[in-house]
Amino acid sequence: MTSLRRFLTALALCLAGHASAATLYHGGTLLTLASGQDRPIERGYLLVSDDGQIAALGLGDGTTDPVVTADRGAAGFTTVDVSGRILLPGFVSGHSHLWQSVFRGITPAAELSAWLQGLHYTYGPHFAAGDFAAFTLHGAYDQLRHGVTTTYNHSHAFGRDFERYREQFTAKLTTPQRFVFAWVNDASADDATWVARLEAVIAQVQPRADRPLLGLCLNAVGLHRGPAILLREIAVAKKIGRTVQVNYLEPSASQIEDRAAWPKIKAAGGLFSGMSFAHFIHTDDTVLREAAAAGAAMIWNPLSNVRLASGLPQIEAYLAAGLRVGMGVEGQASAEISDPFENIRLGLYALRIRRENAGGLQPIDLLRLHTLKTAEVLGVQRWVGSLEVGKFADFLVVDPGNPATGPVWDAAATIVFACSSRNVSSVVIGGKKVIESGRVLDHDAVAL
Ligand SMILES: [Zn+2]
For the whole model, what pTM was predicted? Predict the structure, then answer.
C-alpha cells in the first residue's frame, strides 16, 4: 500500500469519527527473517495497520517514516513498548497432524511401523462424532502456545465417513491459527467426487489477515496404497493447481524398499515443483539430484525423527544440491512438545554432532528454515513467514528476560540456544494478540 493511500485511508477513518486500531510496536529488536536480512534491527519499530497487515517497519521510533506519521496525524494509534524484547515472525510448521495432540507418550519404545500400529490402527477406527474436531482444536491451540502461527494440517480419514473426516477442516476454521489444509482423498470415490469436494474447499481459500485458511494441499497416500491411486492423486492435484505432499523415506528399517519406490513416484508424475516430501531422510545421490532438479522440496521434522529413531537427513548437502527445505513440528504423538524452539535447537545440535564442527548452518539459518522457507514450500510466503511490509502481522514477542537468559549478544543465537516457548510473551496473528504468556485469549483452553 502506498503511503498516500494509507494517509487517505487514515484520514477517511478520522473524518468518519472512527478511532484507528493501528498499533505501533517500538523499542524492540526486529528479526525480520526476510531474504538476505540476517542482521537484526535493534531498537526498531513495526506498525500494524487496522486491517492486520504490517504497514511499516524500520530502525528507530518511526517518527521519520511517512506511513507512521500519516497514521499518527490522522487517526492515531496504540503504542506498545517492546524494549528488551525480540520480535520475529511466527513459526510455520510444514508437516503436522493436529488430531494427534491427545495421544502423547504413546508407544514410547516404537519406531514408525509399530508406532502407527499402536496409534492409527489401534485408535483410529474408534473415533466417534466430534472426536476429530475436539482433538484438532486441542492440537491447534497447543501449537499456537508454542509460537506456531501457521501450520500444515495433514488430515487422516481412518475409514470415517466424509462428514466425520471433514471435522478436521471445519474445526480448524474456528481457531486463529493459520493453516494449509492437507486433504486425503477417499480412495473409493471417483475423480469427479474428489474434484467436487476439493473445489468446495478451494472456494474458501481467500487469504485475509483475519481468516485462518491459507491454502489446500493434497496429501497423497497412493505410495502406500497402490500406484494407480498415486497417479490419480497427482493428476487431480495438477489439474486443479494444488501442491502435493508425500511421506517418504522416513523409517530407517525400510529404507531400501522405500528408495526402490522412487521410480513409482516419477512414473506417477510426482517430480514437479509442487511436490514436497515429508521426512526424506534416507535419500541417495539419484533421489536427491532428481528431486532438486525438479524443484521439489522436503520438510524436516527433527523432534519426531529423533523420537521415532528414524534418522537425520543430510540437510546441508540437500541445501547445497539446491533442494528446498522447510521444517515441521509433526504431530504431538511423535513430537510431544510441538515446540519449534526445541525443534530448531535439536536439529542444529544434531547436525553439529554429526559434523563435529560448528561452521555449518547457523541459528539464523534454522530460524529462516522454520519460517520463510517453510512458507515458500507451502506456497504461502506472499502472506506469512517474515516481517515485511504488506504481509500479515503474524509475529512473536519473545522476552529473553522472562525467564532470564542474561544479556543478548546475538538475537538469533539467543532465540535458538537460550530461549524456549516459555519466553514467548505474546503471539500475534493478523495484528491481534491471541496468546499472552502461554494463556489462550479467545478460547477456554482448560475446558477443551
Ligand atoms: Zn507425519
Answer: 0.94
Ligand 1 centroid from CA 276, angstroms = 13
**50-67 confidence digits (pLDDT tens):** 999 999 999 999 999 999
Q: How far is the CA of 120 from the centre of ligand 1 (A)?
A: 11
Average pLDDT rounded to a whole number, residues 208-234: 94
Note if the bond before 125 is cis, omega within 30 degrees. Answer: no
- Is 74 within 8 Å of 11 (Cβ atoms)? yes
Q: From ligand 1's centre to the CA of 176, what distance in Å?
A: 22
Q: Is the dihedral of CA 32, 37, 43, 49 positive or negative?
A: negative
The pLDDT of residue 181? 98
C-alpha triplet 161, 162, 163: angle, nearest 5°: 95
Ligand 1 centroid from CA 113, angstroms: 12
CA nearest to 369, candidates 419, 422, 330, 316: 316
Give me ligand 1 centre to Cα 24, in Å: 38
> 330 C-alpha to center of ligand 1: Å?
5
State in Å: Cα 301 to ligand 1 middle: 9
CA of 55 from ligand 1 middle (Å) equals: 36
**What separation in Å is there between the alpha carbon of 94 and the centre of ligand 1?**
10
| DSSP conformational letter for 21 | -
- Residue 6 pLDDT > 60, yes or no? no
Dmax (CA) of the chain:
69
pLDDT digit string, tens, across residues 11-27: 444 443 344 479 999 99
Q: Which three cell numbers stand for residue 84?
A: 528488551
The 10s digit of each residue's pLDDT in 224-233 is 888 899 999 9
Which residue segments constitute the domains of the chain, with CATH numbers given? 3-89+386-438 (2.30.40.10), 91-378 (3.20.20.140)
Ligand 1 center from residue 247 Cα (angstroms): 7
Mean per-residue pLDDT over the chain, rounded: 94
